[in-house]
Amino acid sequence: MHLERHRKMLMEASKEAVPAVVAQIKREKPEALHVLSGKYETLSQRNFHDQPVSEIPMASFVRAFVPPPPPTKTDAAPSSEEGNVQAEDGAPSEPVSID
């Protein structure tokens, strides 16, 4: 369990400062962080709701990871031949009817 001040430090840390905050927490209370091995190894005991994408030790998960399907041609933006054209400045214009 994190100390309250550790929670606050993590919430207030900038993206660049997070590694330093994590290092400080590891020094002050190593059992507060999940680790893959060693004295405080805890991941193998965790139960995840969503299956982790990476192969990490765990006890179980509830919902399996299903990768999204690859985009299909119908997912692509319509071409100008299909009625959408762009103005000279690159902004989309109103659809036009091609007869």
Q: What does the secondary structure layout of this molecule look like, with pairings?
A:
Elements: H1 4-12, H2 18-28, E1 47-50, E2 60-63
Parallel strand pairs: 1-2
Description:
The protein is an alpha+beta fold. It has a domain at 4-63. The protein has two helices and two strands. It has helices spanning 4-12, 18-28; strands at residues 47-50, 60-63. It has a two-stranded parallel sheet with strand order 1-2. It is flat, with a radius of gyration of 25 Å.
Enumerate the strands of the largest sheet in spatial order, edge to edge or round the barrel.
Answer: 1-2
Indicate the radius of gyration in whole angstroms.
25 Å
Low-confidence region ranges = none
Q: Major β-sheet, in short? A: 2 strands, parallel
Tally of strands: 2
For the terminal residues, how far apart are their CA atoms? 67 Å
- Listing every helix as H and every strand as E from the N terminus to the C terminus, the arrangement reads HHEE
